[in-house]
Design brief:
Helix content: 40-55%
Structural class: alpha+beta
Strand content: 15-25%
Largest sheet: 4 strands, antiparallel
Order of helices and strands: EHHEEEEEEH
Number of helices: 3
Shape: elongated
Number of strands: 7
Oligomer: single chain
Length: 137
């Protein structure tokens, strides 16, 4: 079973690309005064929207959580894979500060967004922390 990002992430990434194209138009055709920080603010907004759009689009196409019988494989945006065996999971916790699910396996932490929280259905419920049990309820 594959868990992948929803279409909303792709649409938001494409929306950020569209805004960055609009900022290019503003930079070359609308902006007449380059003083008072106008040029710098448009360039910084262009870089911000372009990088957000690029990250979200790559996240949509590359990020996967593959659930198998013996393990789950997490593929991130840059192509690295992390395999976590179900028997090696020590604890599944929830970090409220970062709003992330933390899987502790072999004394290593793997942070997973709650968007992909379906994977916890495959983990033994005895390994849930109290914070996670409160979040699930």
């Amino acid at each position: 079973m594959d868990l992948k990002p929803g279409k909303l992430i792709l649409f938001f990434g494409l929306f950020c690309f569209a805004i960055s194209l609009l900022l290019i138009y503003v930079l070359f055709f609308v902006l007449k005064e380059y003083e008072n920080g106008g040029l710098l603010s448009v360039i910084l907004m262009f870089i911000a929207f372009l990088s957000i759009g690029l990250y979200l689009t790559i996240h949509y196409y590359k990020y996967r959580i593959i659930i198998g019988d013996k393990s789950m494989i997490i593929k991130n945006e840059i192509g690295t894979k992390k395999e976590i065996y179900w028997t090696d999971i020590d604890k599944v916790d929830y970090n409220k500060t970062f709003n992330m699910i933390v899987v502790l396996s072999n004394k290593k932490k793997k942070w997973i967004s709650p968007i992909y929280g379906h994977f916890i259905d495959f983990v033994d419920s005895e390994k849930y922390s109290e914070k996670l049990k409160k979040m699930i309820k």
